[in-house]
From TrEMBL:
Source organism per UniProt: Brassica carinata (Ethiopian mustard)
PANTHER family: CCT DOMAIN-CONTAINING PROTEIN (PTHR31319:SF97), ZINC FINGER PROTEIN CONSTANS-LIKE 4 (PTHR31319)
UniProt-recorded name of the protein: CCT domain-containing protein
Domain CCT: start-end pairs: 57-99
Localization of this protein: Nucleus
Native organism taxonomy: Eukaryota, Viridiplantae, Streptophyta, Embryophyta, Tracheophyta
GO CC, alphabetical: nucleus
GO annotation (BP), single: regulation of flower development
Length: 115
């Protein structure tokens, strides 16, 4: 009986190995079929896609060069009403300042205590 038990144990131990071994030839044959079909198509696809990529890249570079020539770095006024108001506001060294009553001293702030 111990032999039967051992045989069962060894067959149980061998079963996963056999399953792994039995699966790999099927997987490898499928992989060979898939690999052979994709590898036979790949070189022709790479050559044609390489020339397509070069043509697309050349077209993109031409488009970029044309757009680069037309760049405008000058300031563009989008809202003329805002520009008009900004020109009316008082400035000191280019920065906007608050409108002051007739007091010209820089440290004094108008206060609401004068009422």
């Amino acid at each position: 009986m111990s032999n039967l038990y051992n045989n069962g144990a060894t067959s149980a131990n061998k079963a996963p190995e056999e399953n792994v071994g039995s699966c790999s030839p099927q997987d490898s044959s499928v992989a060979k079929i898939i690999g052979s079909s994709s590898s036979s198509d790949n070189p022709s696809n790479q050559q044609s896609s390489g020339s397509d990529r070069a043509a697309q890249r050349e077209a993109a570079l031409m488009k970029f060069r044309l757009k680069r020539k037309d760049r405008c770095f000058e300031k563009k006024v989008r809202y003329h009403s805002r520009k008009k108001l900004a020109e009316q506001r008082p400035r000191v060294k280019g920065q906007f300042i608050r409108k002051r009553d007739d007091s010209k001293s820089g440290n004094e702030c108008p206060s609401s205590d004068d009422s």
